[in-house]
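assembly run, all chains below
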Amino acid sequence: MDKYTQWKIQELKEKKMIEQRGICAGCNKQFRIGDITQLAHILKQGKYTESKYSKDIIQHELNMKLTHSGYCNSSVQMNTNKTELVNEHIQMIENNGLN
Ligand SMILES: [Zn+2]
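ok done. output:
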């Protein structure tokens, strides 16, 4: 990973930290100093989902939440069998403008 990408991730993590008021989207507990934080994808990232929903959707910041690693990260993931929920989520991202 290059320095610029690393910096963009850090910047987004800080933005999410403020938006979520320091709360993990997985366990709803306050992050503590030293906790490892991750940007968890709501629609799972990967070649399959990127080709199905587009990379712009998958890598959009609205498709991400700040979580602890492990269980917290996977618990924000949307079940893609729930087509209606998935479509609503994609619509919400599109309405907010693709970056
Ligand atoms: Zn958590």
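The longest strand covers residues 37-41.

The chain is about 45% helix and 10% strand.

not gonna interpret more than that til we talk
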